[in-house]
Write a structure and sequence with these properties.
Blueprint (H helix, E strand, L loop, with lengths): L3 E5 L12 H13 L4 E3 L12 H15 L6 E3 L5 H14 L3 E5 L8 H14 L4 E5 L1 H4 L5 H8 L4 E6 L6 H9 L4 E4 L5 H6 L4 E4 L6 H12 L3 H18 L6 H9 L16 H14 L4
Helix pairs in contact: 1-2, 2-3, 3-4, 4-6, 6-7, 9-10, 10-12, 11-12
C-alpha cells in the first residue's frame, strides 16, 4: 500500500513560535515536486508533543489540501491516551488523510496486552488504514512481534513504522504478519538494509532537507539498481549523522531554515542547537551538495 520515501515533516514556525502555515504549504509542495513519495505530518519530527489540538488538526488539513492526492498523506494521530488518539484519528479521516500513524503509548508503559487493546480500540473506532509506530527509545515500550501479529489480523491495521534499528525484526515481522504487512523503516541510517530485510520504504527525517536524494535512493532500490541505491546511501551517511547530533527535530529544522523553509525555531523544551551542531549541519549539507 505504501512504499518508497515518506518524509516525517517538520512543522515550520515563525520566530515567535507560531505555526507558519504559508511556509508549511510551500514546504509540502516542494517535497512533492522534489520526488517524495508520501508525507507524514505531525509526528515526532513535526513537534506533535507541543502543538495544541487545534494546531495539530490544522497542520493535517493543510498537508492534505496541498498534497491534493498527488502522494499519500499518513497523518500522525497517536497519543498515550486512547480516547485522544481516537479523536485525532477521526479528524485525520475527516480531513482526507490516506492513513494514520499511531505511536506506542509513551510514559504510561503499557503491557503487551495494553498495547493490543489500545491499537484495537482505535482501529475499531475509525475505519482508516493504520500504521503502528514502534519507537522504544522515545516511548520506553517495545511492541513484540507476537503482539504485532495479533494486531495485523485487524483489517484496518496495515503496517508498522519500525524505529528499533533492529534489522532482525523485519524478518520476524514478515514471517508472523505476512508479506502484505507494510513495513517502513523509521531510522534513516538503516533504510537500505531495512529494504533488504523485507521493508517497503522509510519514513525519513533526512528527507526534509534532501527529498530528491532520499526519493531517488528508494526508487533505485525498487528498480533493482542496488549499486545506485547504495551509492546514494553512502553519500547520505554524514547528513544522517548530522541530523541526529542533537535531539530531533532541532538539527533538521536548522537545516531546513538554511534552505529557506521557515526558521529554526523549535518549541521548548527543545532548545536552539549549539553552534558546534550548526557548523556540523552546514558542513554535512555542503558536502552532500545541498548548499554551495
Amino acid at each position: 500500500m505504501f512504499k518508497g520515501s515518506f518524509v516525517a515533516l517538520i512543522t515550520p514556525m515563525r520566530a515567535d513560535g507560531a505555526v507558519d502555515e504559508k511556509a508549511l504549504e510551500r514546504f509540502v509542495d516542494w517535497q512533492i515536486t522534489e520526488g517524495t513519495h508520501g508525507v507524514v505530518p505531525v509526528g515526532t519530527t513535526g513537534e506533535s508533543p507541543t502543538l495544541s489540538h487545534a494546531e495539530h488538526r490544522r497542520v493535517v488539513e493543510i498537508t492534505v489540501a496541498v498534497a491534493k492526492g498527488r502522494v499519500p498523506v499518513i497523518a500522525g494521530a497517536g497519543s498515550n491516551s486512547t480516547s485522544e488518539a481516537i479523536e485525532l484519528t477521526r479528524h485525520a479521516k475527516t480531513a482526507g488523510a490516506d492513513a494514520v500513524l499511531i505511536v506506542t503509548p509513551y510514559y504510561n508503559k503499557p503491557t503487551q496486552e495494553g498495547l493490543f487493546q489500545h491499537f484495537t480500540a482505535i482501529a475499531d473506532a475509525v475505519d482508516i488504514p493504520m500504521i503502528i509506530y514502534n519507537i522504544p527509545p522515545r516511548s520506553v515500550v517495545d511492541m513484540s512481534v507476537e503482539t504485532m501479529a495479533r494486531l495485523a489480523r485487524h483489517p484496518n491495521i496495515v503496517g508498522v513504522k519500525d524505529a528499533t534499528a533492529n534489522l532482525v525484526r523485519p524478518l520476524h515481522t514478515t514471517r508472523e504478519c505476512g508479506p502484505e504487512f507494510c513495513q517502513l523503516s523509521g531510522e534513516d541510517h538503516t533504510a537500505i538494509a531495512f529494504l533488504a530485510a523485507g521493508g517497503a520504504g522509510c519514513i525519513s527525517v533526512t528527507g526534509n532537507i534532501a527529498p530528491r536524494l532520499c526519493g531517488e535512493m528508494q526508487t533505485a532500490w525498487q528498480d533493482g539498481r542496488v549499486h545506485d541505491a547504495m551509492a546514494i546511501q553512502n553519500r547520505l551517511v554524514p547528513l544522517h549523522d548530522a541530523m541526529f547530533c542533537e535531539s530531533s527535530p532541532g538539527p533538521v529544522k536548522y537545516g531546513a531554515s538554511l534552505l529557506g523553509h521557515g526558521t529554526d525555531m523549535c518549541r521548548l523544551p527543545l532548545a536552539p542547537i549549539a553552534e558546534t551542531s550548526r557548523t556540523r549541519v552546514r558542513q554535512a549539507m555542503t558536502d552532500v551538495g545541498l548548499l554551495n
